[in-house]
């Protein structure tokens, strides 16, 4: 009788556990280590990006000094590109067109290895998180963490994490049918200093000639004139801003939504000139959906299934004045 009462009590206790208990605390803690390591460690390395038949190799140098982050990423094959970051300011050099783009860092899509936000609150409500096998990646002993969506609104992920430092060594985005959509993986990595300061210097002078500088102006806050009648479960608005690409074009609204792991952007731009193309598109692994409403072009884009983006965009309408 006593054994039955104890068993019943255990069942009640299990049913009363909060949502975060579904994921072993150890597995979730690994993700917090990833978010912390990519921003607070100094490291240099080479990583490969692969999506379908497309591959791209990049060299990264990341230095943390006196509370500041300095980073340089150079694409080593295909069209030359170079990205320099000093805290939130990002400069993108495009030597082939002699174009330099300067803007404040956007939170809508992080870059490898800093793929995770610092806050993961509520993540287990929409994902199952568990530990996988241990293996070696780029010479480091790694722990695999498997993240599976609980619905069809988002994709899955698999991360391989350095067991000693928490550094993200490899990441895969997993599609709706269990296929790998994209992969980032270090092939060579050194964690810790010293760092050659020359590795953080841009090399635009190699191309010669004059450079056109484009400063993308951003202002915090959107105009709050739009209703989202078909929100995606678990996604919340994390940022709203007004962006102006050039002085001769009107401002557009840029709104970012995130569920703590995946993110998507909504761009709302007044129509000007000819009618733009609409419908579903893909830009690499980023899905895009465009539609016209109330004399505005609505563009929703992110690493989510196309149906999710279409659902949200089709539910948007301008507030009645």
Please provide a written account of the structure.
The chain has 2 domains: 18-206, outer membrane lipoprotein receptor (LolB), chain A (Clam), CATH 2.50.20; 216-318, 2-Layer Sandwich (Phosphorylase Kinase, domain 1). The chain is built from 3 helices and 21 strands. The protein is mostly beta strands and 321 residues long. It has a 12-stranded mixed beta sheet. Strands 13-15-16-17-20-19-18 form a 7-stranded antiparallel beta sheet, with helices on one face. The relative contact order is 0.14. It has helices at 2-16, 25-40, 306-314; strands at 43-51, 54-65, 68-75, 82-86, 89-94, 99-104, 127-137, 140-149, 156-162, 168-174, 180-191, 212-215, 217-220, 226-228, 236-244, 252-258, 263-270, 279-283, 286-293, 296-302, 316-318. The model is unreliable at 1-24 (pLDDT under 50).
